[in-house]
Structures are given as C-alpha cells and as structure tokens.
C-alpha cells in the first residue's frame, strides 16, 4: 500500500512543479508568435481592456492565467493612449513599461530642432514634418503665457525666443501649439536644472534671461565648445569697457532674413536687437541656444580678447587689439 501512495505523491509533485513552471513561463512571457504585436490603447482604456484586445487577437498564451497573475500581483499600470509595438518576447514588466511611455507611441512623429534655431525656423520644421502649421505655432507663441523669468517688452519679436530648448522630440500630428511649447519649455527647465546641479550653482530668475540672451549670441557665432568660451569672454570684455558688441548675427535677426554678406546699410538698422546700433546686449535672445552655449555664457574663459574673425569658414582667430585684428584681416 505504501508504494502506490509514494508514487501518487511523486506524480502530484511532478504535476505541481510542472504547473508552476508553466505558470511562470506564461506569466513572465505572456505572448505567443514571432511577429511584433501592434497594440492600440484608446482614451479611457484600462490595462484589462488592453489584455482583452490582445486576447481577441489570440496572441496571449493563456488569458486566464495572465489575468490571475495581474490580479494576484495587484498590477495597475498608468497606461497612456496611443499605438504601441510590442515584441512577443517581452516580459510582462517590459510590456507594461512600453504602455506607460508616451514617447513610444507609434503615432508620434520624431522631429529634431537644431541648436541655434529661431522660433520661425522651429515653426517651419514642425510644418515640414506635418506636425503643426507654422502660422498656428507662431500664433501660439505670441499668445502663450510666458514664465515670470522672461521680460515682456513689447519691442521683442517673440517673448519665448530662446526659451524653447533645441532637442529631438516626438509629437503627434495635429498637436496643439501650446502642447509643443509646453514640451519644449519643460525640456528647457530640465536642462537649466541639470546645469545648476552639475556645476553646483543657482541661476536666479532675474539673471536667466541675460544668460540665455548671451548664450544665443554665442550659439550663432561659433560651433566648437572651446571657441564658445572665448566668444563669451569677448562679449564680457566689450561690455565691461562700454564697447558695442557688433555681432553680425544680431543684425541678421533684426533684418528677419538670411544674407550671405551684410552691407554697411544693414548695420545701421535701428533695432533693439542690432548690437551695431544698440549698446550692450540685445533686447532678448536671437535663437534657441544649446547646453554648451548656455554653460559658456555662465563660465567664460578669462582673456583680454576684444575681436575675432573667421579664419577657415569654421574656426576663428582671436585678438586683443584692433590693430592685430586689422593686420590679420588685410593679410587674408
């Protein structure tokens, strides 16, 4: 009698272990098939609604055990609406992470806003990508309630110029201008916070616009990190002795158009952005500067340079005196 009982117990043990292994396999890797699954999460959907949709597509290994697993572990992820691509090799945790990440929505369009772009260039890029009409974006920029750290002078072309951070974003087509601005403003704040943390500094709200204005000039003048520090020093050195900045990029912004070569009459345009006309900094930023330019604006190199000139269409040469600058210019 003992032998049959032992055999029965062994069989029960084997069945139990097999069941546990099957349960673990099904719940850790719940999907079957080899091709990725497209999951549409509609507005208001719960996680159980998503599982129901997948069950209807017959891609879940065992819907009942999967549901038991979700309930037993009290899983209630904060899923977001959109269209998501799920690998059938995904674990339950990986599956949930995808559904919680709006940047992975397949309906989103990736758009890169380069460093140094103006609001008008940003608007053109958004329109080219089919995300938002340029005029709608410009209108939103004009009507957007700007943060307190941005001055509201009526002479400014765009209040938000310089404060929409250049980066790669993912936007749904036909998104509102306010949503685009909100995302770019959020990224701007993140970068400023990162700079403060990395350098153990506190950028006061009353100083932030001056930093970004200076950074925008640096951004449009040079590209290398090393030269940005030098241009930053030139700007400070000129301001400290009451010398006009005379930066060509500010003239182009004041003109509102690109020109390969500026004429003398262009330098005379009466604009608060034109640093040949106005003393000191322009009235506001002339583009969206990147992180390197912002840091260069805050931490300039210590030099006596007052002049610089392009020496090979990319790099620049810096000078302490006008005579040195003129001699070099005449030799080119």
Brief overview:
Belongs to the transglycosylase MltG family. The protein is mostly helical and 332 residues long. The chain has 3 domains: 19-104, Endolytic murein transglycosylase (Dna Ligase, domain 1, 2-Layer Sandwich); 107-301, no CATH class; 302-332, no CATH class.
Q: Layout of SSEs?
A:
Layout: H1 2-28, E1 37-41, H2 47-56, H3 63-72, E2 82-86, H4 92-99, E3 108-112, H5 119-128, H6 134-143, E4 168-172, H7 177-199, H8 205-221, H9 225-240, H10 248-255, H11 291-298, E5 307-310, E6 316-319, H12 322-331
Antiparallel strand pairs: 1-2, 3-4, 5-6
Helix pairs in contact: 5-6, 6-7, 8-9, 8-11, 9-11
Function: Functions as a peptidoglycan terminase that cleaves nascent peptidoglycan strands endolytically to terminate their elongation.
Transmembrane segments: 6-23
EC number: 4.2.2.29
If you had to describe this structure to a student in words, what would you say it looks like?
The chain is mostly helical and about 325 residues long. The protein is about 45% helix and about 10% strand. The chain has helices at about 1-30, 45-55, 65-70, 90-100, 120-130, 135-145, 175-200, 205-220, 225-240, 250-255, 290-300, 320-330; strands at about 35-40, 80-85, 110, 170, 305-310, 315-320. Strands 1-2 form a two-stranded antiparallel sheet. Strands 3-4 form a two-stranded antiparallel ribbon. Strands 5-6 form a two-stranded antiparallel ribbon. A hairpin with a 5-residue loop joins strand 5 and strand 6 (about 315-320). The N and C termini lie far apart (about 110 Å).
């Amino acid at each position: 009698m003992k032998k049959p009982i032992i055999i029965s117990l062994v069989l029960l043990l084997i069945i139990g272990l097999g069941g546990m292994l099957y349960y673990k396999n099904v719940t850790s890797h719940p999907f079957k098939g080899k091709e990725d699954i497209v999951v549409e999460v509609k507005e208001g959907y719960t996680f159980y609604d998503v599982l129901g949709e997948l069950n209807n597509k017959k891609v879940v290994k065992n819907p009942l055990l999967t549901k038991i697993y979700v309930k037993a572990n009290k899983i209630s992820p904060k899923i977001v609406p959109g269209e998501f691509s799920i690998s059938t090799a995904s674990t339950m945790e990986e599956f949930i992470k995808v559904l919680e990440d709006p940047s992975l929505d397949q309906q989103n369009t990736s758009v890169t806003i380069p460093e140094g772009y103006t609001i008008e260039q940003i608007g053109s890029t958004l329109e080219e990508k089919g995300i938002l009409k340029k005029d709608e974006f410009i209108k939103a920029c004009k009507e957007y309630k700007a943060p307190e750290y941005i001055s509201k002078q009526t002479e400014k072309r765009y209040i938000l110029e310089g404060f929409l951070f250049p980066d790669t974003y993912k936007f749904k087509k036909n998104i509102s201008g306010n949503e685009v601005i909100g995302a770019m403003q959020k990224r701007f704040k993140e970068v400023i916070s990162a700079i403060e943390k990395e350098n153990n500094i506190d950028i006061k709200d009353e100083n932030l616009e001056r930093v970004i204005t200076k950074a925008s000039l640096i951004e449009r003048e040079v590209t290398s990190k090393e030269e940005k520090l030098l241009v930053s020093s030139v700007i400070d050195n000129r301001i400290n002795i009451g010398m006009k900045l005379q930066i060509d990029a500010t003239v182009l912004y004041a003109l509102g158009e690109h020109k390969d070569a500026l004429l003398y009459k262009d330098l005379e345009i009466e604009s608060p952005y034109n640093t040949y006309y106005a003393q000191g900094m322009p009235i506001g930023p002339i583009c969206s500067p990147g992180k390197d330019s912002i840091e260069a604006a805050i931490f300039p190199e210590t030099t006596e340079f007052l002049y610089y000139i392009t020496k090979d269409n990319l790099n620049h040469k810096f000078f302490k005196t006008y005579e040195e600058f003129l001699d070099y210019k005449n030799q080119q």
